[in-house]
Amino acid sequence: MRIGIKLMLVVAAALVAAAPAHAQRQSLADRVGALEQQMYNNSANQDLLNQINQLRQQVTSLQASIEQLQHDNAQLKQSAQDQYLDLDSRLNRLEGGNAAPALPPVPVSAPKAAPAPAKPAAAATSERPPSVHGDAGSLAATGDERTTYNVAFDSLKAGKYDDSAQLFLSFLQLYPNGVYAPNALYWLGESYYATRNFPMAETQFRELLSRYPTHDKAAGGLLKVGLSQYGEGKVDQAQQTLETVVAQYPGSDAARTAQDRLQSIRLGKQIR
Length: 272
What we know:
mainly alpha; 73% helix
C-alpha cells in the first residue's frame, strides 16, 4: 500500500515538473506564428504599396494624355472655326457679287427698229436674252416693257434695293407674262435678299421656279431658295434644298456655290 502511494506521488511530481516546459514550448510556437503572420502582413502591405505607386503613375500618365487631347481638341475647334468664318466670308462676297449683272438685250424676235444713234445706256446690254425652254407663252418684248424693266434694273444696280423691289413689283403688275417676267421675279427676290428680308425673297424665288421651272435662272432661283432658308434660320431645310441644287444642276455655278455653302453649314454644326 505504501509503495503504491509513493509511486503516485512520483508520477504527480513528474507531471508538475513537465507542465512548465510544455507551456513554454506552446508559448514559443505562438510567438513564432505571430512573427510569421506579421512578416506575411508586411509583405502584403508592401505589395499593396507597390500597386498603389503603379496606379499613381498610371493616373499621372492619363492626366497628361487628357491634357494633350484637350489641347489638340481646342486647336481643332479653332481651326474649324477659322475655316468656317473664312468660307462664310467668301460665300457672302460671292452672293453679293450676284446682285449686279448687266441688263438683257432686246430679244431677237422683237420688231426691228430703225437705226438710231448710240445711247449712253447701251452698255447695259451684255446680259443674255431671257429664255424659257419649254414654257409656253413667251412674248416679244415691247419698247415699253423693256424701258420699265431697265428702270427697275438700274435701281438694283445702284444698290437702291427698296426702290428696285417696288419697281420690279410694278413691272410684274404691268407685264405679268412678259418676256422679262422671269428675270423680274429673280431680281425682285434678290432685292429682298439684299435687305435680308429672307421670307419675301424665298417667296419670289419659289414663284419663279413654279412658273418657269426650265428657265435659265431656275438653278440660281433654287440656290437662292436654300440661301433664303438659311437666312431664316431653317438650317436643315436649307441643307436639303442646297443638296437638291447640287444633284439637279451638277457642274453649274449654282451647284458649286451650293456645295460651298453646304460645307460651311457642316463646319458650323461641328463647332457648336
